[in-house]
């Protein structure tokens, strides 16, 4: 028979289990309101208690301490209030032992919230395809590090220069058209750049002339002169077209005016191979074959005269072609050096300070920022001819994309910022979904786009 006990108020027997539960409740009440002087170790700060005991031992041993100055005394009081939780602990006695259990500082509502099985939102890791989404053959692509032969317009039209010819590939319907064939005396084409309107395009030629074309009508609008050698770098800033040539000159052309040359920047001793305006249009970055990087400020430019640079940066050891302004920090510029340098550097263009340097172990040909994440994409030459995606600011490699068999000279980003086109000396043009995939609900693929050039190898002409 199960043993039982009888409470004072009732003759009904308790089971053993009920007796144990009653004793546990009574014991918990005794611990919370005990009249015995038993310290609660869980509610004591043992480090503070040890400090207070040793301090009292020093006083009892007669160890003399110099009288502190008022400033030092105030400092000690502040430290005592912060570390010992007692403003008078530095000069007077304080309680060492604790006889009462501390209450849980976390409220009951907070405990319920933490213990509830609420779904925790966690950002899914982005899948990055390791192979190109599509590949186009690009015969006669000039293998020249100092040229800029690829650009993507806001109207989703990709332009590429192959020898003396400029081709347009419309990404919305995968149609290909021929815009320009330069004469042998003019060509080859050395640079292409779309205007901000996505309709007009500037084309630099080997004979130092820049041609402006209307892509909708396939007509040349005008020719701009001012350089004495080939024009390998172009950059737009509103209606201002900035051009850089092998003569070392950088010229601002206002395409609205008959006398189009409005400013000239002199600083480079050799060919200008990189030009990029900041997103605000206030600063221009230029890189050259003289291993120099210049920052020019629009506010310092004077009309029809030579302008003075803001910063002259000489930390690269090879030609500086790859330039990219950060989309989420206006004064942050990334630059890449050639085969003797192999580094990516980050600059504060307000102060001219180099913030970080990363050795990539290969020639840096081009740079692109991800507009949707804090990431940077770089294209390289020997030995892997790869595209490398970096996490900023840690500069940890996220992935490397291979497929090109020769140096990847050019990169261009689609208007939505997700797709990147790469053109290499192996005469191929590849498309990568490296920056993610756009929302399918906001984007409808045409039949030609999803079929004609998907996972296939096609000639661009």
Per-chain topology:
Elements: H1 16-32, H2 46-60, H3 70-83, H4 108-115, E1 134-137, E2 150-152, E3 157-162, E4 165-170, E5 175-181, E6 189-194, E7 200-205, E8 210-214, E9 219-224, E10 231-237, E11 240-245, E12 249-254, E13 261-266, E14 272-277, E15 283-288, E16 293-297, E17 305-307, E18 311-313, E19 320-325, E20 332-337, E21 343-348, E22 353-359, E23 364-369, E24 375-380, E25 387-391, E26 396-401, E27 408-413, E28 420-424, E29 428-432, H5 447-451, E30 457-459
Parallel strand pairs: 1-30, 13-17
Antiparallel strand pairs: 1-29, 2-3, 3-4, 4-5, 6-7, 7-8, 8-9, 10-11, 11-12, 12-13, 14-15, 15-16, 16-18, 19-20, 20-21, 21-22, 23-24, 24-25, 25-26, 27-28, 28-29
Count of β-strands:
30
With strands numbered from the N-terminus, the spatial order across the biggest sheet is 27-28-29-1-30
Uncertain spans: 6-10, 441-458
Major beta-sheet overview: 5 strands, mixed
Distance between the terminal alpha carbons, to the nearest Å?
99 Å
Mean pLDDT, to the nearest integer, reads 84
Rg computed from alpha carbons, rounded to a whole number of angstroms? 36 Å
Helix-and-strand structural type: mainly beta
How many helices in DSSP terms? 5
Shape: elongated
In terms of DSSP E residues, the strand content is: 35-45%
Q: What helical percentage do the residues reach?
A: 10-25%
């Amino acid at each position: 028979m199960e043993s039982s006990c009888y409470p004072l108020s009732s003759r009904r027997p308790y089971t053993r289990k009920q007796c144990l539960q009653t004793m546990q409740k009574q014991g918990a009440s005794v611990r919370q309101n005990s009249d015995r002087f038993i310290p609660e170790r869980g509610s004591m700060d043992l480090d503070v208690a040890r400090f207070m005991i040793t301090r009292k031992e020093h006083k009892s041993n007669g160890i003399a301490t110099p009288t502190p100055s008022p400033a030092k005394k105030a400092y000690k009081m502040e430290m005592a209030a912060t570390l010992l939780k007692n403003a008078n602990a530095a000069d007077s006695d304080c309680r060492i032992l604790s006889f009462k259990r501390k209450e849980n500082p976390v409220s009951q509502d907070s405990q319920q919230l933490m213990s509830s099985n609420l779904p925790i939102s966690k950002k899914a890791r982005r899948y990055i395809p390791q192979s190109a989404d599509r590949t186009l053959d690009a015969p006669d692509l000039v293998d020249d590090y100092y040229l800029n032969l690829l650009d993507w317009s806001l109207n989703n039209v990709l332009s590429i220069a192959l020898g003396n010819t400029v081709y347009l590939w419309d990404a919305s319907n995968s149609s290909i058209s021929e815009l320009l064939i330069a004469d042998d005396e003019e060509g080859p084409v050395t640079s292409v750049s779309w205007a901000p309107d996505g309709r007009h395009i500037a084309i630099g030629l080997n004979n130092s002339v820049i041609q402006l074309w209307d892509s909708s009508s396939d007509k040349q609008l005008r020719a701009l002169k001012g350089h004495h050698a080939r024009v390998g770098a172009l950059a737009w800033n509103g209606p201002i077209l900035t051009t850089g040539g092998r003569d070392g000159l950088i010229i601002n052309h206002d395409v609205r005016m008959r006398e189009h040359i409005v400013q000239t920047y002199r600083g480079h001793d050799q060919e200008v191979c990189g030009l990029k305006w900041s997103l605000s249009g206030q600063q221009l970055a230029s890189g050259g074959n003289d291993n120099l990087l210049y920052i020019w400020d629009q506010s310092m430019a004077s009309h029809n005269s030579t302008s003075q640079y803001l910063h002259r940066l000489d930390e690269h050891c090879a030609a500086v072609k790859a330039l990219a302004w950060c989309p989420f920090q206006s004064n942050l510029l990334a630059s890449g050096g050639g085969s003797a340098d192999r580094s990516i550097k980050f600059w504060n263009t307000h102060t001219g300070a180099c913030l970080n340097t990363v050795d990539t172990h290969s020639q840096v040909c081009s740079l692109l920022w991800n507009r949707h994440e804090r990431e940077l994409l770089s294209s390289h030459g020997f030995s892997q001819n790869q595209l490398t995606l970096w996490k900023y600011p840690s500069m940890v490699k996220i992935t490397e994309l291979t497929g090109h068999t020769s140096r990847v000279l050019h990169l261009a980003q689609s208007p939505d910022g997700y797709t990147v086109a790469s053109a290499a000396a192996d005469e191929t043009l590849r498309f990568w979904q490296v920056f993610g995939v756009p929302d399918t609900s906001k984007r409808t693929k045409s039949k030609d786009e999803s079929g004609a050039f998907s996972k296939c190898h096609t000639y661009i002409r």
